[in-house]
Amino acid sequence: MIRFLFLLLLIPFAAFSQTEKLEAEFEVMLFSRHVWRGEKMGDQPAVEPSLTLSKGAFSLNVWGAKTFNDSYAELDIIPSYTFGNITLSALDYYNPVKGEDNQFFNFSKEKNRHSLELALNYEASEKLPVNLMWGTLVLGDKNQDTDKPFFSTYLECTVPFSVWNIDVEPGLGMTPFKGYYADKTAIINANVTLGKEFNLSDHWVIPVQTAAIYNPYTNDFFVTIACGIRIN
User: Fold this and answer.
1) pTM
2) Cβ partners under 8 Å of residue 101, min gap 6
């Protein structure tokens, strides 16, 4: 099922953008810790490479993360379509488990390490200067007690602005009902990110950032720092 949906989303990328120029962007970041939606993944710094191919309104992103001690690893394939300020994405999350027989193309019930999320993003504009995000896990997110999907959902709002040429982005994320993120409706991600980019040339950029993240549901607090290089 995951393979079918993924291939279905790639059809428009291949078929309907023949007249557009294909663009590529590569980035690799080093994070002191990998924190995702208020939850720490792994217990050591993580290397996070990313490759994005875009053609017209369509893009395909391949993103990965791996900690120094293999306590966490992830590989995502993300096709997206953008119209105006809105982007529709399908996120195929692949999370191998250390010490187990993980195979990327094994989708059997017992060994499947994939989950699929459908997401809708709104990018800030003059009329509405906030970033909005809605993501719902539609596959690979079952309630072990009932064997039925949770459809775990994450909602986030961030407010991007600049101070002294530094990008500032405070945000708030929540889940509206019981699922993967929490056992009830809860705010799970209150954060603020500071970032700045240093242009080495027209095609080489060094991004740096730091973030303070608090999860009110679990009462966990994290501070992360990151730096890397981007080529386009």
Assistant:
1) 0.89
2) 111
